[in-house]
């Protein structure tokens, strides 16, 4: 059991809110090259989310991951039958409904009753096609070979599982529900494990990253190598005293391993509580998947530091802030043994 349950609850909320802030910051520039970002937003690039700060499908699916996991948690406590993979699969299928109709149907409950989620934010075709299948894919029986970043960007809630081993396994399997390439689902497990070590176990960030690399190496040397390069480049950055962060050396962030490596690198360069905004800006301002890389950076820093680091002026305009806060807190409560209103997940 975590030593400070209230801190875990706070980190749960910060993890989801931080990810959403990064998502909203990077969303306007996600398809632009660095030169185009500077042309549209100035020499420093994008420096704050727009008002309102709208999220992408990454945050939408993160909410449905959290909701599905908590439904499985509550059902398991009441019946002894714990089936998080199947439950999250059905949760993703509920998200798919929000992409197909304009508003909630009569009698909708839970997230399906929230009309703000009935907005299509350019979801990836890989996710849409995978979730239209009759049978949920697994790492052992994938439906495609995609290693795109949309698998890893929604797995942070798995980090609040009961143990590090379970967090890693769930992260892998949640990502594999849409992304069957090894890097696509291993990066999901790596992200969940990292969140667990930071938010639930309170590990120092460098120690947590090293533990993640060691675990990932057994399943996918490519992803482990990408994360190791993120560490090496961060050490070089500090030794050379560089002013700017060059995340492009780790790729564009369109794949799961690249996106997670960019986020880990940025967090290691800007690990302090006072550097949250600097980290998100560095993660967003590059040619590539800016929303994914900034969202993962926000997830990680939120899990590391808690809500105190989140800029209040950014939160004021953030879409779905109430849902993100409550689901994040309930994830933290489930991980720390604190009571919460389980009726919303029945």
Automatic annotation (TrEMBL):
<keyword id="KW-0378">Hydrolase</keyword>
<feature type="binding site">
    <location>
        <position position="57"/>
    </location>
    <ligand>
        <name>Mg(2+)</name>
    </ligand>
</feature>
<feature type="binding site">
    <location>
        <position position="58"/>
    </location>
    <ligand>
        <name>Mg(2+)</name>
    </ligand>
</feature>
<dbReference type="InterPro" id="IPR050792">
    <property type="entry name" value="ADP-ribosylglycohydrolase"/>
</dbReference>
<dbReference type="GO" id="GO:0016787">
    <property type="term" value="F:hydrolase activity"/>
</dbReference>
<comment type="similarity">
    <text>Belongs to the ADP-ribosylglycohydrolase family.</text>
</comment>
<keyword id="KW-0479">Metal-binding</keyword>
<dbReference type="InterPro" id="IPR005502">
    <property type="entry name" value="Ribosyl_crysJ1"/>
</dbReference>
<feature type="binding site">
    <location>
        <position position="291"/>
    </location>
    <ligand>
        <name>Mg(2+)</name>
    </ligand>
</feature>
<dbReference type="InterPro" id="IPR036705">
    <property type="entry name" value="Ribosyl_crysJ1_sf"/>
</dbReference>
<dbReference type="GO" id="GO:0046872">
    <property type="term" value="F:metal ion binding"/>
</dbReference>
<keyword id="KW-0460">Magnesium</keyword>
<protein>
    <submittedName>
        <fullName>ADP-ribosylglycohydrolase</fullName>
    </submittedName>
</protein>
<dbReference type="Pfam" id="PF03747">
    <property type="entry name" value="ADP_ribosyl_GH"/>
</dbReference>
<feature type="binding site">
    <location>
        <position position="56"/>
    </location>
    <ligand>
        <name>Mg(2+)</name>
    </ligand>
</feature>
């Amino acid at each position: 059991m975590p030593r400070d349950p209230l801190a875990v609850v706070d980190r749960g909320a910060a993890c989801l809110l931080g990810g959403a802030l990064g998502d909203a910051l990077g969303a306007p520039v996600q398809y632009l090259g660095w030169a185009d970002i500077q042309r549209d937003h100035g020499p420093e690039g994008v420096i704050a989310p727009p008002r309102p700060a709208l999220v992408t499908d990454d945050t939408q699916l993160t909410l449905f991951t959290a909701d599905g996991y908590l439904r499985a948690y509550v059902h398991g406590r009441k019946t002894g039958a714990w089936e998080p993979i199947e439950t999250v699969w059905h949760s993703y299928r509920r998200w798919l409904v929000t992409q197909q109709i304009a508003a909630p149907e009569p009698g909708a409950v839970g997230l399906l009753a929230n009309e703000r989620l009935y907005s299509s934010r350019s979801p990836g075709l890989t996710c849409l096609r995978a979730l239209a299948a009759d049978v949920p894919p697994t790492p052992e029986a994938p439906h495609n070979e995609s290693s795109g970043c949309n698998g890893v960007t929604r797995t942070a809630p798995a980090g609040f599982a009961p143990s590090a081993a379970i967090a890693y396994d769930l992260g892998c399997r949640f990502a594999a529900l849409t992304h069957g390439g090894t890097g696509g689902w291993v990066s999901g497990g790596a992200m969940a494990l990292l969140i667990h070590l930071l938010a639930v176990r309170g590990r120092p960030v460098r120690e947590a990253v090293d533990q993640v690399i060691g675990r990932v190496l057994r399943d996918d040397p490519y992803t482990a190598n990408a994360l190791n390069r993120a560490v090496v480049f961060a050490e070089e950055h500090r030794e050379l005293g560089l002013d700017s962060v060059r995340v492009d050396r780790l790729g564009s962030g369109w794949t799961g391993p690249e996106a997670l490596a960019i986020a880990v690198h940025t967090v290691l360069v800007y690990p302090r509580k006072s550097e949250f905004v600097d980290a998100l800006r560095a993660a967003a301002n590059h040619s590539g998947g800016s929303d994914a890389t900034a969202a993962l950076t926000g997830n990680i820093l939120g899990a590391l530091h808690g809500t105190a680091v989140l800029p209040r002026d950014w939160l004021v305009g953030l879409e779905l802030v109430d849902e993100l806060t409550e689901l994040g807190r309930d994830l933290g409560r489930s991980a720390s043994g604190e009571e919460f209103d389980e009726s919303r997940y029945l």
